[in-house]
Design a protein that fits this description.
Number of strands: 21
Number of helices: 14
Shape: globular
Largest sheet: 9 strands, mixed
Structural class: alpha/beta
Strand content: 15-25%
Length: 596
């Protein structure tokens, strides 16, 4: 198996002077009740889709205002015809009375201009049939311009996508590589899952087997991974397998993590790489790593594939927060990270069917104001320094191999006052205003566009391990102090947001999903569930992987790393990237939505 080597240095910082989130939200904002009377719309369009399993479903609603601009709040309404029951929503306040459902936008993002869209989602239960609503309203006006409701039924973890019109010619560069394509299923990882299911047996084993056909990322985490080894297939073999999975003219999208910079993951040990800046690492990275990858991907044989390259997780973010550490300081002073990323972007962007998505860490790392804008500045300047400039990237990815949820449905306003203190001041958040990835990615998208990147850039979220389901999942928030309120309502159950290694209690997150909301190209599974983040004890190896104490469940981290809490890591973990049966069993058992 390719070693995903997804160890992460998750540093938390107490930052003063953070600005409010009044301008932020996913399309039209997150869960905040509006207190203003909504203005009327004269025409509207609604697109409604669901991903469903035997007892529940996730619904996505996109409303387009085709009439007069709305300035004072918007509400979408509809009636179910069966016994569907909404359990929670995001990107709007979704409530239900009988069969009638209303979704109200937040007060601080209450406008909806003519032609503008708002997208929100919800989880619900049902039994029997799950018919789509016959009609929708926007501020009381029936949306007669709505497209026919469509339903995507998911009985396994494979995402089904319906497209209309003629597909673009093979090899052409499309706006969203995931749209109209099916994901490549890594046979090596799928075999691990099938073996785990057979070994486990029973109901849990049955659930495991249903995950085996999910598309996951392939980590090219060392030079040897390009050609392949006795235990793992190489890049060309993966691309050949992806070609074999193409059927009926539907293109296959295959995801590869480019992950071998010199001084890689400079603030951690479990995923330290093979190349060193001081040993001509940058030159080797270019000639022995990137050049062979680009040569294989450029083979005309693979022109019909859509190849997604996830570019160097944690690299540039480390230059924002961790240059006090020697290896990070060397990566910065030598220019190895910036020049290496630019070289990778240049070589891969030149291949028309390759799509570059640059890693931007996650909300619990770069969410503070003192981190977010400097990160945008560094990443933007790096991109603009490439041959193609701002066109060398197709978008960005957050939460790669991490655990931060897409949404915190019960903690929606960082400035909500509890006991005289804003919610973001809770110990778990330490004044970071971004509690989840959708808020954070929306802020990042807006900042990148403001910095000169095209508005067509798309965001990805790695949802492979951010589900946080199971019996401990909360159903609301309450408490008289910010800590009590936050701890009662957060679905992210880590002891500290700086904990990143093999987290106890985590579950599979949302299945790979195409275009879940505007500016988001997809939810993806880049980290293959079941692959370890790092060993819980020191294990001698020839893979260049050290022992990181953040993977030891008995270790208390530093105040800077995780507030001095225990690491929350699972015991008996193997080296990063190796199969970890106990972790996989937990991820499936705690999946949200559940595996059905």
């Amino acid at each position: 198996m390719p070693a995903s080597a997804s160890s992460r240095s998750r540093r938390t910082r107490l930052i003063s002077g953070l600005s409010a989130l009044a301008a932020l939200g996913l399309t039209a904002g997150f869960l905040v009740a509006t207190g203003n009377e909504a203005s009327a719309a004269t025409a509207c369009k609604v697109d409604y889709s669901v991903n469903q399993w035997s007892t529940g479903f996730t619904g996505t609603v996109t409303v387009t205002n085709l009439g007069d601009a709305i300035a004072n709040g918007w509400t979408v309404g509809w009636d179910f015809t069966g016994n569907q029951q909404v359990q929670q929503g995001w990107s709007a306040t979704v409530t239900q009375s009988g069969q009638h459902v209303t979704a109200t936008g937040p007060d601080w993002a209450k406008s909806l201009a003519t032609g503008a869209t708002a997208t929100f989602g919800f989880n619900a239960s049902y039994s029997g049939t799950n018919a789509a609503p016959a009609a929708f309203t926007l501020n009381g006006t029936t949306c007669t311009g709505s497209a026919p409701p469509t339903t995507t039924t998911t009985t396994t973890t494979t995402t089904t996508t319906t497209t209309t019109g003629n597909p673009p010619p093979p090899g052409s560069h499309v706006d969203n590589p995931y749209a109209g394509a099916k994901g490549y299923v890594n046979p090596d990882w799928s075999s691990e899952v099938t073996t785990a299911a057979a070994t486990t047996g029973g109901a849990l084993g049955s659930q495991m087997s249903k995950v085996a056909n999910t598309s996951t990322g392939v980590w090219l985490d060392r030079i040897a991974a390009i050609a392949g080894t006795d235990t793992q297939r190489g890049l060309r073999a993966h691309l050949d397998a992806a070609l074999a999975q193409a059927t009926g003219g539907t293109p296959v999208v295959a995801q590869f993590v480019i992950y071998d910079l010199p001084n890689r993951d400079c603030a951690a040990l479990a995923s330290n790489g093979e190349l060193q800046v001081s040993q001509d690492g940058l030159s080797k990275y270019k000639s022995q790593y990137i050049d062979p990858i680009a040569a294989i991907m450029a083979d005309p044989k693979y022109a019909s594939l859509r190849i997604v390259a996830i570019i160097e997780p944690d690299s540039l973010p480390n230059l924002i927060t961790n240059t006090s550490m020697a290896k990070c300081a060397e990566a910065q002073s030598s220019g190895a990270y910036v020049q290496g990323v630019q070289y990778a972007l240049n070589k891969l962007h030149a291949i028309s069917n390759v799509y570059n998505y640059l890693d931007i860490a996650h909300s619990a790392w770069l969410g503070w104001d003192s981190n977010l804008q400097p990160a945008v500045n560094l990443i933007t300047s790096t991109i603009k320094g490439t041959t193609a400039g701002v066109n060398s990237v197709d978008g960005f990815i957050s939460d790669t191999a991490n655990y931060t949820p897409v949404a915190e449905p019960y903690l929606t306003d960082p400035n909500l006052t509890i006991g005289g203190q804003p919610l973001r001041s809770a110990t778990i958040y330490q004044w970071n205003p971004y509690f989840d990835e959708s808020h954070y990615d929306t802020a990042m998208y807006n900042a990148f566009v403001a910095a000169g990147l095209p508005s067509s850039i798309g965001m990805l979220i790695d949802t492979s391990r951010d589900g946080w389901g199971g019996s401990a999942r909360p159903t609301g928030a309450s408490g008289s102090t910010v800590d009590a309120y936050a701890d009662s309502g957060r679905i992210d159950r880590r002891l500290a947001r700086g904990n990143w290694c093999n987290q106890s209690g985590a579950g599979l997150g949302q299945r790979p999903t195409v275009s879940p909301s505007p500016h988001f190209d997809a939810y993806v599974w880049i980290k293959p569930p079941g692959e370890s983040d790092g060993s819980s004890t020191s294990i001698p190896n020839n893979e260049g992987k050290g022992f990181d104490q953040m993977c030891d469940p008995t270790y208390h981290g530093s105040q800077q790393a995780n507030g001095g809490n225990l690491t929350g890591a699972l015991p008996n973990a193997p080296l990063s990237g190796h199969w970890f049966q106990d972790q996989f069993a937990q991820l499936v058992a705690n999946a949200y939505p559940p595996v059905q």
